[in-house]
Amino acid sequence: MSKMMSRYADGHSLEYKSYSPSTSPRGRRYILQNLNYKKKKQINLDKSRDKEYFDIRKAPPSTGSVASNNSTSKPVGTSNKVMPTDSPRKTPREPPVYVSPRKDIKAVKTPRKESPEKNNTPMKNDKNESGKQTKNELGLTPRDEYMVTKLYDREIIYLKPSEVRYTHDQITAHFQDGRSMISTFIALLYGRAEIRLGGNDVPPIEVMQTDELDGGKSEKIWYVVNGNRRLYVFKRLEKCGALTTMQVVARKYDSIEMDKHFLTRNKGRTVSITNDAAIGAKFVKEVSKWKEWKAKQPAQKPGVKGKSDKGQSNPSKKQPGLPSQTNKSNCCTIS
């Protein structure tokens, strides 16, 4: 039988029973020799690339400071590195030089320039002599008026709820803060809350005016872009005769903003409530209770202010641009 060719360089045949070359002394010796061969080959290759190559471990110790590490005596690729053999030395600091200030020159203190808009900006706690916040003819404090007109470039106007249309087809019976529409309706119905900016009352809705064809005629229509649930409550108040006009925030028409909110398929004439089928009957029940309560209230003489009219303007005086009402609140017209 012919002798089989040897697999390893040391000459042992394949008949040697071992699972791995590293488990036998011969296999380990072969692996070490192979690794040393690769190292030598790499060193020779580096020498051929750069004749100035030398082993880093045999580099002479540097006598200079850290700043001398950028010299050309560094090995290749280590010009910007601090070698282990370098001994960095701290350069002595120069003594500080003290300059005495001149007495004939003095710093001029320039007064701070304040912008006129900052001085005219009404603060949150602006109050009159009696301690109450002053309000204009629209029922707004100077701070609220500044926030709306100056910062957001919007206008506060008065509209009837029937003049504004929805932008959604479906709404839920609860607001985002968890309050139900029926509880808000009751609070507005009995005068416990108002439609106005600021405070814990019901904020006004935001509307945009569009110019579109309705019935073959070009007509300007108001659409609500923020507050479809509030508009539903306001329309219910107008239907029962408790609300005539409401305060709204008019925004400039923006086609992108309108397209984002415009989800109605009947041009905003009606809206349905998804999660409460009996909410219509609840509104009718509360309106009947309110009418019975209102009938029991004593009638007030004209020109005499009651407790509910405390702090309100004289109803006999008409405000410019607004219809005369028997009971005018700061935000809307309550009958």
Automatic annotation (TrEMBL):
Biased composition (Basic and acidic residues): 43-58, 101-117, 124-135
Biased composition, class Polar residues, residue ranges: 62-82, 311-335
Region listing for Disordered, in residue ranges: 1-139, 292-335
Protein name: Uncharacterized protein
UniProt source species: Dreissena polymorpha
